[in-house]
Amino acid sequence: MKNHDSAFAAGAEPLPTPMLDLAALRADTPGCEAVIHFNNAGAGLMPRPVVQAMLDHLQLEAAIGGYEASATRAAEVADFHASIAELLGTGPGNIAFAGSATHAYTKALSAIDFHPGDVILTTRNDFVSNQIAFLALRKRHGVEIVHAPDHPDGRGVDVDAMAALMRTHRPRLVAVTHVPTNSGLVQPVAEIGRRCRELDLLYLVDACQSVGQYPLDVEEIGCDLLTATCRKFLRGPRGSGFLYVSDRALAAGYEPLHIDMHGARWVAPGQYRPVDTAARFEEWEFPYATVLGCAAAVRYALRVGLEPVARRTPALAARLRGQLAAVPGIRTLDGGPAPAALVTFTIEGWEAGPFKAAMDARGINSALSYREFAQFDFADKAVEWCLRLSPHYYNTEDEVDAVAAAVAELARSAR
């Protein structure tokens, strides 16, 4: 996709039905028979090939031993790096496996030699764990955290204002979350990347909620580092994620604070040498069944096609958001011209826990977000909590309508 930011402007267009075989996709997804799963921003339902890849490897480990099984499946294990690389438009040597997106993110942060007074430039809609990590760096290393202002029209961060802060502060790191967990807002990461490249600034992108939902190209984004999980819209297993490291970051010598025998070679009693690839950010021990499940999930997503997914998934969310906005007592919270497939809203007359329980009782999977997850955004919106509904391409229009009807019924019951 040649224009990364403009891709999202078309995200809510209706999807022509021939592009996805929904019956086959749902047959591949056993969970569809049990629940209406609108918590893909938390963890997507794994398709059968992902589950089977993991089970096959566990059975092989039980039959011949863990070391022997990983050696037997070496080519399939290596496909994790190759598949993620294909997903992001880069090379396998630029990809590192991680136990989670947060694991990948903190590994990336640990590679930066922060000093007192260094600036981290970020936004007001960043992921909570990232913000906590920045505060921990301020506490330990004396870094300064600067939050770029949002654009007055609600489209997300004001890129011109952020670029001005880049020039005045010369930040040690620019860090942006592509789609925050508490909202469907889509940040203009490629435009920010262009500004970072102009000023030769280190740029880190959290793509947890966009990978698997939209086509991503790290060259178009212009990032040096990118992190994500495999469990959300990629529909992989929990306990997995990855880190992308650009060639220029590798050549500049970035390496994690704690590096082991997988990421480096002990070349002399008092000397080690990092490996040349992003493997320097990995550890020697891998959960091999999980790695193979992730590779299967990425291959599955690539076979389905990210272009049709990027059209259908936000379109389902737009259908849901539009129906909810018409319900008295409901306030939808998502900003930007073309929100992603995270639909967030408040509802009058309900507390968070009971409302979530009422949705659970109706067989609808959802998630809650609280003020502590989004201190700036929720303060601006004057809310303490919201419910998040996140459909994916294998969900149906009938499910969207059923969920909207259930929420409307609960809204009426509180009046």
Offer a quick outline of the entry.
By secondary structure, the protein is an alpha/beta fold. It has 15 helices and 15 strands.
Question: What is the topological layout?
Answer:
Elements: H1 22-27, E1 36-37, H2 48-64, H3 66-72, H4 74-88, E2 95-98, H5 101-110, E3 119-122, H6 128-141, E4 144-147, H7 159-169, E5 173-177, H8 189-199, E6 203-206, H9 218-221, E7 225-229, E8 241-245, H10 247-251, E9 264-268, E10 271-274, H11 288-304, H12 306-325, E11 330-332, E12 343-347, H13 352-361, E13 364-365, E14 367-370, H14 375-381, E15 385-389, H15 397-413
Parallel strand pairs: 1-13, 3-4, 3-5, 5-6, 6-7
Antiparallel strand pairs: 2-8, 7-8, 9-10, 11-12, 12-15, 14-15
Helix pairs in contact: 2-3, 2-11, 4-11, 7-8, 12-15
Description of the structure:
With 415 residues, this protein is of the alpha/beta class. Helices cover 41% and strands 15% of the residues. It has 15 helices and 15 strands. The protein has helices at 22-27, 48-64, 66-72, 74-88, 101-110, 128-141, 159-169, 189-199, 218-221, 247-251, 288-304, 306-325, 352-361, 375-381, 397-413, and strands spanning 36-37, 95-98, 119-122, 144-147, 173-177, 203-206, 225-229, 241-245, 264-268, 271-274, 330-332, 343-347, 364-365, 367-370, 385-389. The strands form 4 sheets. It has a 7-stranded mixed sheet with strand order 2-8-7-6-5-3-4, with helices on both faces. A 4-stranded antiparallel sheet has the order 11-12-15-14. It has a two-stranded parallel ribbon with strand order 1-13. Helix 2 (48-64) packs across helix 3 (66-72), helix 2 (48-64) packs antiparallel against helix 11 (288-304) and helix 12 (306-325) runs parallel beside helix 15. The chain is globular and about 75 Å long. It starts with 21 loop residues before the first helix and ends with a helix. The model is unreliable at 1-18 (pLDDT under 50).
